[in-house]
Write a sequence for this structure.
């Protein structure tokens, strides 16, 4: 988490921590319901990141996992019945994009790719047959997180992110 604190304000870190629950709700509600499969997948993927992320990002994902249920509950309550839910959540994710662009490129790129992967996995978690055809049209509009400006792959290798200091 220290790496984030070196470049971001506390509010920006909080916005990043809320990104995964926001994506889960945004993608999960595309078909009108955020079902149990999507909810379980959302939490499971976050838990996996706690152990599989680069050493410098593990504290961030640990914090995301610790706050996930509370953030998810708050967001689910906030958007239940909201007609403009996707617009509100999209606006929240724009803040995330701004924060990612303040990080060194290798960290911003890694987190951006994690968010895209997360969105894809949530979309695939429910529906279809053996996950084939599981992404519906509405989910496909959001799965690429168009509200977050893409971060280009850095010239330097990402492997050093996985090394312990």
């Amino acid at each position: 988490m220290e790496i984030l604190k070196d470049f971001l304000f506390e509010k920006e870190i909080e916005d990043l921590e809320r990104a995964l629950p926001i994506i889960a709700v945004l993608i999960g509600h595309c078909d009108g319901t955020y079902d149990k499969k999507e909810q379980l997948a959302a939490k499971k993927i976050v838990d996996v990141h706690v152990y599989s992320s680069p050493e410098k990002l593990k504290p961030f994902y640990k914090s995301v996992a610790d706050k996930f249920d509370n953030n998810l509950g708050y967001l689910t309550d906030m958007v239940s019945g909201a007609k403009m839910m996707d617009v509100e959540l999209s606006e929240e994710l724009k803040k995330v994009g701004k924060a990612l662009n303040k990080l060194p490129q290798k960290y911003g790129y890694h987190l951006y790719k994690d968010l895209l992967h997360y969105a894809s996995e949530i979309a695939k978690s429910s529906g279809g047959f053996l996950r084939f055809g599981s992404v519906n049209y509405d989910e496909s509009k959001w799965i690429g997180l168009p509200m977050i400006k893409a971060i280009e792959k850095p010239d330097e290798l990402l492997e050093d992110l996985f090394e312990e200091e």
